[in-house]
Structure formats: C-alpha cells, structure tokens
Amino acid sequence: MKQLFADFRLGEVKLEVETADDLWHLKGIIEAGDAIRGRTLRKVSSGNKDERAKDAVRKPMVLAVRVEKVDFGDAGELRAGGPITEGPEDIPLGTYHTFALGLHTQFSLVKQHWLKFQRDRLQQALQSSKTSVLLVVMDREEAYFALLKSFGYELLLRLKGNVQKKGDTASAAGNFYADIAKQLGEYNSRHQLRSIVIASPAFWKEDLMGLVEDGELRKKIVLATCSSVGENGIAEVLKRPEVKEALKQERSSQEAQAVEELLAEISKQGTAAYGRQETQKACGMGAIRLLLVTDAALQASRREGWYPELEQLMKDAEAAKGDVMIVSTGHDAGRQLQGIGGIGALLRFRMQY
After folding, report:
1. Which CATH number fits domain 2-115: 2.40.10.270, 1.10.10.10, 2.40.30.20, 2.30.30.870?
2. Structurally, what CATH architecture does the domain formed by 254-347 represent?
3. What is the torsion angle, in degrees rounded to the nearest 10, for the CA atoms of residue 344, residue 349, residue 352 and residue 353?
4. Which residues contact 255 (CB under 8 A, 6 or more apart)?
5. What is the model's pLDDT at position 91?
6. How many helices (DSSP H) and strands (DSSP E) are in the chain?
7. Rounded CA gap, 62 and 38, in Å?
8. Which of 73, 133, 144, 241 is deepest in the core (most CB within 10 A)?
9. pLDDT tens digits, one per residue of 36-74
10. Rounded CA separation 312/322 (Å)
C-alpha cells in the first residue's frame, strides 16, 4: 500500500491500493462512522421518470460517504458504502453509494480517532513489500506449494510424483525432484520471493537441495521438518522453530504464534484470559499484555450491538500499555481463537479467580 498524504491531527490519510493484501489490511482498519472520499463511478439518469431506467449511465465523479458497511464483494474488491456527504450539485446528499476498492484505487480515509492498533495495521501495510514467502511441503510422492499471505496462505500447486513400486525408483524420484526445483525457480521469478521454506519428513528435502543449482535461490531456502505433507503439513511448518526467523515479519505467522501461546497458557491455567467477561476483568486490573480479537468477533460485535464495549476494551488495553492484535479467521489459529469466543489475552501476571 502506498501513502500519498497523511495528517493524523485531522484524522486523514490518502492511500493507493497496490496488492490484494492491502484490501485485507483495510478491512481491519475501515469501520462504521469513517469517511471515504475519492473518484468513483455512479449511475446517473436524465429525462423524465419513465426514461430514467433506460437512460442511466455510469459517470466518473468525486464523492464522499459516511461508512456504514464494509465487506468483500464477489469479485474480491473491498466494498465500503454509506450515505453521500459530499458530491456534485446534481447528486442528492444522503443517498447511498458504495465505493469498490480494488488494485490501484486511490482514496482518502478520515477517522474521528485513529486507535493505536489501526495505525499499527496501516504501518504494517505500508512497510510490507511485494516479496513473499513460499512454503513447500514434500516427500517423494507429492509436493504442495503455498504462498504465505497476510490473511493466511494461498495454495498454488500440488505436484504428484510417478512413484514406482519396482524398477528404477531413484530415477523416478530424481525426475520428480527436478520438477520441484524447476517450479521453485519459476515461482521465485514470478513472486519475487524473499524466503522459501522447504519441509519434508526424513531426508527428502536434502535430496531436493542437491538439484537446486542457482546460488541466489539457494540463499533464500530454509529447511524444516514436518511429519506429513498437504495442508496439515503447511500448518505444522508455520509453527516450526526453524522457520520462525524467516516468517517473523509475516502477519499470519505472528498471529499463529500468539494464539498458540494463548492456548498453552490456558491449558496450564497460566497468564491468560479468554471470553468477553474474563478478558474484561483482566483489563480492569491492568493485566493485559496482548489482547487478541478475531476479525469475526469484530464483525459480530457490530452486527449484534456490543461493538462499543469491545472498542472500549481495546482502548483500555492500549491505555494500560498493552498491545492489540486483530487475528484473521482465514487460518487455523484464528479459527481456534474464534472457537473459544473470539477474544483472549496474554497477561502480565496470573489472575486469581
């Protein structure tokens, strides 16, 4: 994401969407009550009432709306809609309009107050580059390629090897590894990869490395161990200590590690709280070190009318020098957190109940 202008005293930033990941960040930043201003297309009609339906055309114009709803559209764009507050003279104020935010969209976002976690999320989007981390989990029979994203991961490809029960099995495996090595090179060029994590049971990954001849590509590779292949293997690799350094800047890995720590503390009745009531009590005692809230819990709070309570919880946690992390339910860790209420906290000290 590119920042074209910012004045947080006025609550305004002007942004340009550069990648699909930016839309996910914006989904966590834009909320009801915000103002969005920018160039957009809107249907306008001429003629009398009977002719309007036939004569309606989409015209470019600059509008501003007060946001009431934010969600992803069917085409993957981020849709933010609400009543119009600014526009040309022939556009009635108060009528509804929806901005479709997509790649290369430029717009201004105005908030009455920027919360710390929202500014942190914006900075993360601004600092993230287009380079990515590729995860490969493989054995001698199959390989899965996945691109790590801020919202989880995107499964790119599954390769199947020609496993022979008899005959020249070494030759068959060698050809399969050559196919994997070739695919690594192609994805490295296409996605401008920063790191490549290759994981396998046993020694398959070392055999593969023998076929990776590109020195620059080899420098990007981190080897790890997993007990299985497939998407279960990918989830396992995200937690491996060998790859934490390579993945520490990736949002989904950070979220997974935080949720894993929370669940571990809960299991031993340690420095953790979960659920709205218990977490609120911990916050009241100034105990919260890291507050975890799922995106689904945020959406539910707005839908069900308890968002003011949740917003105050986040503000109070920040005021007590705690951090707030919004966790995506697009990966397993987020779904685990959602399963225990969508709200939890890592604490500075153990609570007495």
Report:
1. 2.30.30.870
2. 2-Layer Sandwich (3.30)
3. 0
4. 325, 327, 328, 331, 333, 334
5. 93
6. 13, 17
7. 5
8. 133
9. 999 999 988 766 555 555 567 889 999 999 999 998 776
10. 13
